[in-house]
Every structure is written in structure tokens, then in C-alpha cells.
Write the C-alpha cells for this entry.
Amino acid sequence: MAGAEQLKEQAGIAACRFVTDGMSLGLGTGSTVRYSIIEIARMIKEEGIEVVGVPTSEDTKRLAEHLEIPLRTIDVATNLDLTIDGADEFDPKFDLIKGGGGALTREKIVAKASNSMVVVADETKQVSTLGGFDLPIEVDSILWEDVRDGISGICPGEVRLRGEDEDPYITDNQGFILDCSFGPTISNPESLEREISEIPGVVEVGLFVGICDAVVMASSGGVETLVKPDGRL
Ligand code: 5RP
């Protein structure tokens, strides 16, 4: 039976069937999409495809540079053909929780600048209702305590600063992350995203609603591609 790492590799590689010559690609962040990025580099070297990537984090930028994938920066990224990225959870409507790796803000910018988005995941990420994974929210590093108080009025569980109070996790944008324990209760992610975004000091919410078009999911039974019926793929 395939181990967790092999499942990630299978999903990451299988998603590259959506990659074709000439595409501009959003390159996600995380341990699953890492395998897609390695596969894209192989396709460039061995199959001669020409693509340009837009990395969603400094980690992904370093990896893509190391693999010699041609890159474009996020500030000039519009109208990308496809983003491939991981997720912490996906639900039956293909809505997502993202940000376990802390890159949610740039991930959402790049995904929204793309004409389609494919998520790579193993079967543990598939849920009926979002929220079992603590919802990551990027916040302004000065206002984080006010934002935490604001979110506590909405979130039924704990709202924790990622890292330690004295040594918080810092994002690529110099923000902090609040991890919010909603539990599997997020049945209307769109309205929750809107409500949280209205709190001053919130930079981005790790809910990706109506953005993902397909999930390439690896399980012990093999790799399955779930395509959103009314999506863009
Ligand atoms: C980073 C993310 C990741 O895509 C998400 O956490 C999934 O990562 P992994 O494939 O390592 O489980 O949202 O901000």
C-alpha cells in the first residue's frame, strides 16, 4: 500500500496532465504541489514544453529557481492559464481551506488571476463540511490582538496565533497567522469569508470559494480526478 508521501507524489504528478506547452502557470505551495513543480521541470527538460511559472511563496520561488523553471513575479501575473496548488481541506462543492503552509494570501492572488485551478491532495483532505482543519487567517502583525478579539466573536472555538506570542510565525508578507478552530461547521464559506474579511486588520482568509475547478486526489485505491461539474475545466 502506498504511504502518505507516495500518495502526494502520485497526485502531484498526475495533475500535470493539465499542463500543456505555452501555458502560464501559478505554482502553489506545500509538500504535495512540490511534486507537480518537479514534474513541470521534467516536462520542460525532457519534453521541451515552454511554460512560465508564478510562485505563490518564497519557498516555491526557491524550488522553481533551483529547477530552472522560467518565472514571472506576482505583481505582473494576470490571466494565467492554470494554477496547481495543494489544500488542507476540500468539500463537495470544491471549496477549500488553505494556508496550512502560511502562503494563503499569495496563493489566493495567483489562483484568482488564473483561468482555472487544479488542487492536488490525498484522500485525507476530502471532507463533507469544511472546518475540521483550523482555518488560517493572515492578519496585520500590529493589529493581531484586535483581529483575534473580532474573530473570537464569530469562531466557536479557539483562535490561536501561529507560533508563540514571543516568536510568532511570520508570513512572506510580514503578516501573522491566526488559526481558528471552527470545527466542521463551515456550511456557508462564502458568507463566513465575507464576514471575517470585514474585520479591520484581516489581510486574507484561507477560504477559497468558487475558485477550484478540479481535485486530483490520490488514495490507496489509485489517483482520481474530480472535476467540478460547472467549473472551467
Ligand atoms: C500552503 C497551503 C498548502 O497548499 C496546504 O497547506 C497543503 O499543503 P500540503 O500539500 O503540504 O499538505 O495552503 O499555504
In short: The mean pLDDT is 97. The longest helix spans residues 33-47. The domain at 4-122+209-218 is CATH 3.40.50.1360 (Rossmann fold).
